[in-house]
Structure formats: C-alpha cells, structure tokens
Model the fold of this input.
Amino acid sequence: MRRLRFPSSLPLDPYIAALVGTVLLAALLPARGAAATTAGGVSTGAVALLFFLYGARLSTREALDGLRHWRLHLTVLASTFVLFPLLGLAARGLVPYVLSPQLYTGLLFLCLLPSTIQSSIAFTSIARGNVAAAICAGSFSSLLGLLVTPLLAALLLGGHGAGLSADSVLGIVLQLLVPFLAGQALRGPLGGFLARHKKVLGYVDRASILLVVYTAFSEGVVQGIWHQVTPLRLLALLGVEALLLGLMLAATSYAARRLGFSRPDRVTIVFCGSKKSLASGLPMATVLFGGPQAALVLLPLMLFHQMQLIVCAVIARRRAAAPPEPATYAAHAASVPAAR
Done:
C-alpha cells in the first residue's frame, strides 16, 4: 500500500498571518470617531484602486483565446456559481444549532464568490495540469463574479442585510465595476508600467485589502459584535468549511472524470472549481454588507482561504508525484475534448 506523505512544510500563507495581525490590531486599537470616518473613506478608495488594477492586469485576448475550452470553463463556472451556492443553501439546516445566523451569512456569501486566479494557477502548474486553461478559467470566473456574486447575494441573502437597494447598486457600480472597466480601457498604455512594477503593485493590492479588513473589524469591535462568537462556534465553523471543501474537491474530481476530460484538464477543473477568491470577496463584502456585520461575514472567508491553500498544496504535490496515466486511457480522454 502506498504511504501518504504530507509535504514537509504546509503553506501557512504569510498574507494570512498579516490578516490575522490586522484583526488583532483592530481588536486592540479600533478606529473610532473621526478616525473611523477617515479609515472608511480611504478604504472605499482602496477598493476602487484594487479593482482598477484587476482590470488593467487582465488580458482580454488571453480570455478570448481560452473560449475554445468552453466545456472546461462551463464545468468550472457550474461548480463555482451553481454547486457551491446549492451546498451553501443546504447548510441553512445547521442554523442555529451548529452555526449562528451571522456566521451562516458569511458561509453562504463565501459560496457565492468567484474562484481564485493566482493560487489556482500555481497549484495547477505544480500538479502538471493545463495552466493556460487555469488562467482563462480564473479570468472568466472573476469577470462573471463582478455581476453574478452581487445578483446571487441579492437573491439569496436579501433577508440577511445584503439586499440590492439603489444605494448598494450604485456602490457596486462605482466601487467595483467602473474602476475595473477603466483598468481594462487603460490596459494598453499602462501595460508596460504594470509589467515593470508588478511586485510593488502586488504590495498595493495586499495593503488595500488589509485596510478593508481593519476598517470592517474596527467597526465590529466598536459595536461589540465579537461577544456573539464563541470558541465552540468557531470550531463548528471550521468543521463545516472542511466538509464543504471536501465535498467540492470530490465533486469536481468525479465530474471531470465522468465528462471524459484529459488528465491536465481534470487537474485544472479540480483546482479552479473548488476554491474561492479572498481578493475579490473581502472588498465585495464591504460594499454589499453595511455596518459591523461585514466583520462576521469576512471571518468564514479568511478561514476557508487558509484551509484551501493547505489542502490543495497536499493534493497538488501528490498529483505531481503520481505516475503518468496509461497511454491508452490518456489518448482516449484527450480525444474527447478535441471532438467537441
């Protein structure tokens, strides 16, 4: 029997450590009064900048070129925006015995988010999957998420503080969509600058999200919402999220095999269809959820993000070490997408 080997060091993302530190800072030194007003205004601007940079970086040509893998992309999108929300709705039966209503709102919001881009590409590459398809799948998911996530939130979370009023629609358009489209429009003249300063702009991305987290959690601390969260509830949330991730990994793997995808495409489907984007979710939550509730909505997302990194790192390294498929099966599987 082959022995299961875990990697020597699990990926404790330094960025997650920074997020935890930001939450602790908000707990010890929350922004109050005029400082809270200033932080809120700067946070709004940071979200707009974040989505401007997303738009400026996304290659429209790469996304269009990837349309030839339409079966793969439809499979990933169905996992992200259909199966994930259905599982989130099924978790409603855990309230109030396992999850509090506030934590369930955060869990359901997590299920409505688009997939990741960077980590999906990285894990797909490690596991010898279809990297080009992973780039396109992440791009499509992010693009659709700008529209689909708010609409699903309006439909499924209308009674939980995320109904799309005129103000929230305007907020989504001004803070997310307009900057994103502006970035796309200016991608040509800004392309060289973005390429030369990619590392620095990555720090800008992360600093913007840290500011969003600090602002949201500061308001939660000032309003005293953390008295509603007990250690037992947090453990229950971790258990539910572990089950959610396990179900999605199993479902995407099974579906990819049943649909006859090649091994590289199956790897892409598993990693792109089972994860959720922290980078998109944090700023979206601040727009869709007003007041201190945003802090509790963000908590399930941050926990799930670290969990998916650890689990997918183990899977990616195991698949990288696995022997190639038999030639007959690989040739048969590869012929199925080619015939579509």
